[in-house]
Every structure is written in C-alpha cells, then in structure tokens.
Amino acid sequence: MRENISRRAFTLGVLGGAALYTVARTAPAGSAATPYRLTSDTAARTVDRDFFGVNGARIISAENARQWHDPAFLDALAAVGPGLVRVQGGTTSQWIDWRTGLFQQQSGHDFASNDGRPPLLLTDWAEILRRTGATPIFDLNVLNSTVDDQLAMLREAQRLGLPVRYVELGNELWVPLPEYVAAFPTGADYARIMNDWIVAIRGEFPQARIAVAAVDDSSPIALASPRLKSWNRLLYQTIRGADAVVFHPYWIVDPVAADIGSTAGGGVVAWTQLMQRALSQVPSGLEVWYTEYNQMGREASPPLDRLPKVRQTWAVGLSVASFTLRALADPRTRMAVLHCALNGAPAADTGGGGTTNQALHALISDGSNGSERYGRTALNFALTPIYHCMADGTQVRALHLDPGIEAPAALLMPVYAGAAEAFTGVELSTAGRTTGILINASDRSLRITLLPSLIGAQDVSVYSAAPTAAPAFVPGDTVSESRAAASADIELPPYSLAVLRTA
Hints:
This protein has 503 residues and is an alpha/beta fold.
C-alpha cells in the first residue's frame, strides 16, 4: 500500500532483533500505597484551538471516499472536535488532481484505481471543514504538479472560504520510492526546489505558515540508506524561508513482549526518543508539526507483514493520548494531527490501502471487517475529551508526579527496552478556568494530591476501561465515564484518563 510504504517500508531487519529489545525489564516504581503529589512546570506556553487535528485519510478505496461524503460520518468526526484537517491526506496528496478530485493515472504507474471512486473536490473539502469547524492544512502536490498549479488550488480554496493558514510542502519525500528519489535525490535537492515554492507561495499568501518534510531519525528508518541518513542535515543547511519542519512519528510495540504495559507506555517512549534525537537537531526558529502520528503494527510491506495483527485497545488509546499531551506541552510543537480518520475498507485495488492493520489507526471505525459503522474507537474515547478542552489563547503547563511512576516497556521502533513513565498530565488555563488532564497508564490506582489550582474542581470526568477493551471493533466493549468532584486529592483508576475543570 502506498501509504504504508511511504511511512513504514524501511524497518528491514527489525524483526530479527526483537528478543534483544526485551532484556531490560524493570519493575514499576512505587506501590499501591504510595502517596503521589502533583507538580507543574514553571514555564507555560500558549496554544490555540487549532493545535489538534486529523489526517484527511483514508480516501484510497472507493468505499472510504464515499464515506467522506456521508453526513453521518462528518457528524461523527465533528463530535470529536478536531481543530485541523489535513487536505488531501498524506501520500494521496502527491497523486491527486485537485481539479478532478481523482488520482492521476500515469503510464506504467497507477497510484490507485479510480474505478467506482467518487471524487473529492475542493468544494467537498470545504463542506467537510465547515461541518467540523476545522482549519485546513494544505499538503501540496510537489511531486506530480507544479507551483503554478498548486497556487491555483490555494486561490480556489481561498475563494471557497478556506483560510490558507498552513501549507505543507509534500508528504514524506525522503521515502526511497523511485519517483521520489528521481525528483529529490537528496534533502538538499528537495530544499533547493522548495525554496522557489516558498518564495512563490509567500508572494501570494504572506500569512501562510509553510513547512517542509523531515525524517524522524529516532526511528531505524533513518539508518536504511545514505539518502535517509543525510536528508535532515542537508535539508536544514539548504532550506530558506520555511516556518516549520514536519515529522511523522510512529512506534511499534515489540511483538515478543507485546504486553499491556509496553502498549500503554509506547507513546511516552516514542515521544522521549523523538525529543532526544530528532527534535534536538531542529534549527532554532523552526516550528515542529506532526501531521501524522500513531502506533503501528502489522502492515502490508515487508518485513512488517510478519508482525502480529495488533488490535486497537484502550491501552493503545492511552498511549497515543500520552504522546498527544506531551506534544501539547512542548514549546517547539505547533500541531499534532492524528493519522487517521477511518480504518480503510479493504478493496481489490487500492494501492494496498486498507488491506492490513489500519484498524489500529482509526479515529472512527468504517464498518469494514465487522467493525461498527462510524463507531467510537479507543482513540476516539481517549482524544475527544482532550480536543474539547482546547480554546484559543490556552496556557499550557506540563504536570508531573512526585515521586514518579514507571513501568517496563519494549519497543521495536524506536528501538527501546527499559522503563517508561506511566503518568502524563497537563494544566490548561484560559478565560478564568483551569483544567487538568491526567493519564494513568499504569496497572495500579494512584492517589494524587492536587495542585492548588485544581483543588475543589466541581466538574471531574474519569474515563476508564479494561486495557484490552476494543470499542467499535468488539461488540459490547466501551469506555466508561464517571463524574465526580475533586477535593484536595483524586484517585485515578488503573488505565484511566481524567479531566478536571474548575469554575
């Protein structure tokens, strides 16, 4: 599948090292009787409602393309409350003719079939964005189009009432697909061409923030070839006038030790490795955008097709939510856009799209493979309360536990075995209200003494489920919500997410 290949085809040899990554197994810190105290960072950052969003995918199969036209699906997406929608998805954006809303058909290479597939035109995206109340991120076709043609697209989008606020220059052009290598042999070649695009875009849309594609070199994919190893360095040396760099962090829990703890802690491990490696190399003055991120599992491309097919569970939801909150608290990060909206209904010819483990990624289930049509997945239950807390001008501080609590985790990507923090939290302050979002990704209850700003919160929602629950994919599985008021402390159940709102 093109979308699989574009993100995931470069972990050759990773399966053979699985046992190596499971050796460092550490015991969780603390005990059920340990009293924990909530603390906060001194520094705060300001974010707006359009920090969180969803990738405009999957749209490869005819069935999924039809679903993006379905008011019932758009209502389900609007209920989540994304502030951003990525138009027109990721790899798909490099093969779509915006005038027809269909994939370009080229001699000797077809990205995906258009048979039975309804087009997605700019007028359709305008309706999608209107119904969801989201802002578009325009992922431009820099591979099979021209800067003049893409400027025409942005002009038409603006005519339709879509703000040209965020512009992404292509999707994962560092991937070693023959077409990408031919067009952009190195990161410097990509940067030189994009420098001209940036000047042209800035001339017509001076308000736009423009981002370029970087490699997540906390992942083993960065070791796959000299082109990948040097991509970021040459990009940073050569690019001029960009506002941001784009990373697509994905992580894989070690299938040999695919326990609940590793799954629930995977997002924290992925964030920590990304921060220590890839983010530390980003030049000052450039924002960081995550226009795709999620946990991975079994995929279409070798050797990932040998992995077990991982189910999307509540533990996965908490893992992704933990990554999401840490991105929110990071001063370099401008946006966190989840991949993706739908499973990807299997089809005979979709460029591989949706034929493997896409259910692991889905914010909303699409009805394929026995799933609930437009059902709320674990990711949906975990992220919706977070999205609903966002407002323009929100002050964000990271929260911590004293003492900290850890659990063992083993990942294949990034390569890791050891302890992972099992608590993630943020404090949000806006318009006279303070909100705390607390995630307990451990297997024990936590009694936590609250910060003064959260004591006496009258609106407390606690979301919890069995860590193996798979809402929308297993009939009867769901996430429960309990309501309470907070005094000076709060009890967080195992594997739970709590939202505390003051008046």
